[in-house]
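Thread title: Can someone regenerate the structure for this chain?

I was given the following input by a collaborator and told the matching structure tokens would be attached. They weren't. Posting the sequence so someone can regenerate them.
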Amino acid sequence: MNALNGQKHQMLLGPYVCLLCFVFAFPFLSGLYPIVRFNEERIDIHVHPGHVRVEGQYVYKNPLPFPVVQGFSIPLPVDQHHPRPVMVSAKVLSPKEKLLPVRYILEKYRFEMAFRANEEVCVTVHYRQQTRAHDACYILTTTKPWRRPLIHGTYRLIQRGVQVRSSNYALQTYEAGALIFHKTNFMPEKDWHFTWEAV
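Best answer:
Regenerated them for you:
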């Protein structure tokens, strides 16, 4: 009888342990709570008359002496004039190049990535967004949940048949057709908004 009760308790304990593990891991796997550090980003936005094409390069570091899995969500500005972006993709550039599966879950594009102990990883994210008005936004304020400022950020607008008219971050001319701003120790207080007109 005692042996049967023991088996019953073991059978009931298994699902509870699994549920507890899931509840514990969910904030990390969903990207709600970061384990790794977000150290740098380089953002290139190709501005066309009716759309923008965004290429983001992000550097993350696992500060822990053991492997971890981190979930990420891609913050995208969507409203009545800026429909949900398309052609969303993510890829690890280093240490070894590989595509990452991106899923649309709970109205956000998400992916997960495994880090080795103390590993630094460079990831690129690409997407394209139509715009009915000649303006766009790149979300910067989602740096805050990472709880520490970016060591370095570089942000470029590459003009493709347009002329940029305004930006709430001061821009400098970088090269033919490109405008740029740099930040160090950067904890953004505002997102990046800019406007243009076709030429």
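Confidence is low (pLDDT under 50) at residues 16-32.
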